[in-house]
Amino acid sequence: MRYEDWEPLYHEICEYFSFDPDDDERAAHVAVDLSSSDATSDLVNLISGHPVTVCGNAPCLKSQVQADNITGVVIAADAAASVLLSCGVRPVVIVTDLDGIDEYAIDLNNKGTIMVVHAHGDNIPRIKTWVPKFTGPLILTTQGRPFKNIHNFGGFSDGDRAVYMARDCGASAIHLLGFDCDDQSVTPVKKGKLIWARRLLSEIGYDC
Ligand SMILES: Nc1ncnc2c1ncn2[C@@H]1O[C@H](COP(=O)(O)OP(=O)(O)OP(=O)(O)O)[C@@H](O)[C@H]1O
Ligand SMILES: Nc1nc2c(c(=O)[nH]1)N=C(CO)CN2
């Protein structure tokens, strides 16, 4: 997605959540200073022309995975990765702002799972802890203006960001599992994030 097309949505999101774009920019610089990795061409090779399943972490994920034959390239949004592992499915890509993963992600990354790590104003300490641990394929993302090896595919929360990324990388079809944007069992902030997930996904033709 062109940053110019994303920018108005980004400013609306910052206003809605009272985020300071300067903090996001600071986080992006912290990430870039820690790693020069960029596995974007590996990601494009994996996804371009292929079907993808993006797994969000709604409570329905487990039963949907058990009921569904997961097709194509499996992308986990953050903590959805551990649900997939418990169902015997290894995510090929994990999109994360680092608040839902655990040590298992390092092992998966060493075995080839592409980590797509999002830097934002509220996760700088987690960037400093986790980024140096990923010695396998790694892509950095920002929600602000991209530069050097940090990308902006569009999207805000891990799930919708994963869908925007798959679309940008040329997926032939994108199937969603584990998305429930009406989930009432979440915190008020998370409810706001799910309202945005619904809006951003609807902008590109997906319902959740
Ligand atoms: N009902 C739901 N509850 C949680 N996540 C959901 C739900 N429906 C869709 N998702 C998507 O699954 C993603 C991963 O969920 P997780 O529980 O790991 O959230 P999170 O780490 O709090 O996400 P984020 O930090 O992006 O808000 C979310 O970013 C969201 O896009
Ligand atoms: N500044 C900031 N940016 C974000 C945040 C957040 O909590 N703070 N959470 C996100 C997805 O959960 C994505 N982006």
Automatic annotation (TrEMBL):
Q: What Gene Ontology terms for biological process does this UniProt record contain?
A: tetrahydromethanopterin biosynthetic process; thiamine diphosphate biosynthetic process
Q: Which residues form a coiled coil?
A: none
Any one GO molecular function term? 2-amino-4-hydroxy-6-hydroxymethyldihydropteridine diphosphokinase activity
Pathway(s) per entry: Cofactor biosynthesis; 5,6,7,8-tetrahydromethanopterin biosynthesis
Pfam families, A to Z: MptE-like
InterPro entries hit by this protein: HMPDK_MptE, MptE-like, TPK_catalytic_sf
Q: What is its EC number?
A: 2.7.6.3
Q: Which reaction does it catalyse?
A: 6-hydroxymethyl-7,8-dihydropterin + ATP = (7,8-dihydropterin-6-yl)methyl diphosphate + AMP + H(+)
Q: Which major enzyme category is it?
A: transferase
Give the 6-hydroxymethylpterin diphosphokinase MptE-like domain ranges.
Answer: 39-183
Q: Which SUPFAM superfamilies match?
A: Thiamin pyrophosphokinase, catalytic domain
Homology family: Belongs to the archaeal 6-HMPDK family.
What this protein is reported to do is described as: Catalyzes the transfer of diphosphate from ATP to 6-hydroxymethyl-7,8-dihydropterin (6-HMD), leading to 6-hydroxymethyl-7,8-dihydropterin diphosphate (6-HMDP).
Q: What is this protein called?
A: 6-hydroxymethyl-7,8-dihydropterin pyrophosphokinase
